[in-house]
Amino acid sequence: DTAVSQTPKYLVTQMGNDKSIKCEQNLGHDTMYWYKQDSKKFLKIMFSYNNKELIINETVPNRFSPKSPDKAHLNLHINSLELGDSAVYFCASSSRPGANVLTFGAGSRLTVL
Amino acid sequence: DAKTTQPTSMDCAEGRAANLPCNHSTISGNEYVYWYRQIHSQGPQYIIHGLKNNETNEMASLIITEDRKSSTLILPHATLRDTAVYYCIVRVAGQAGTALIFGKGTTLSVSS
Predict the structure, then answer these.
(1) For residues B40-66, average pLDDT
(2) Buried (b) or exposed (e) across B42-67, using 16+ Cβ within 10 A?
(3) Which residues in chain B are closer than 8 Å to A103, comparing Cβ atoms?
(4) Is B94's CB within 8 Å of A99's CB?
(5) pLDDT digits (tens, 9 = 90+) for A90-111
(6) Are B35 and B87 in contact (CB under 8 A)?
(7) What whole-number distance in Å separates Cα of residue B27 and Cα of residue A4?
(8) Residue A25: C-alpha distances to residues A65, A99, B110 (Å)
(9) Spatial contact of B102 and B36, defined as CB atoms under 8 Å apart
(10) B42 contacts in chain A (CB < 8 Å)
(11) Mean pLDDT over residues B22-51, rounded?
């Protein structure tokens, strides 16, 4: 069983489209995250949710809207996709907010043409 | 979080020990040292962490100097599958409202 699973693994789309990436964790963790890794390989935190509540929002454009229907799921919806949104997006989870041991998913590679 | 400094890249022969250094001279007393790695095309993977004492688990050993200003991650018998970017992160435990920040890390290349 995959602990943190993301779908889709690959996503190719046109500029201006809207797309979603889904994440699920079966670890019973309370806290989930979205990180973005750009072409230069820097990993940057975007959002974090604790038990369905947003606790971290790192100055991400409001075209990005995370949604957490329950504490096991954190989805990322992106409106009006731009070329600069091309990146690998990683979902992660931890037992509690501020924990430093995170379990990451395998990543979702988004390519905007 | 205290700043860390790691070499950009390192090479290691398969079967030999890989010793990855990390400098964290401004570490404060309540900050832990965490190590993660990211194998190509995969998500980051937690390896080990420590506060003062040396730590060992099934993946690696962590040696922290007595003054805590530097540490070394040791992979005792490196394999080709250990080729990855290794991140050293210094951070207080349980700091809600913030998240792990990854630097550039060290790219370890293990060759046969």
Answers:
(1) 96
(2) ebbebbbbbeeeebeeeebbbbbeee
(3) 46
(4) yes
(5) 999 999 998 999 999 999 999 9
(6) yes
(7) 31
(8) 19, 16, 32
(9) yes
(10) 106-107
(11) 95
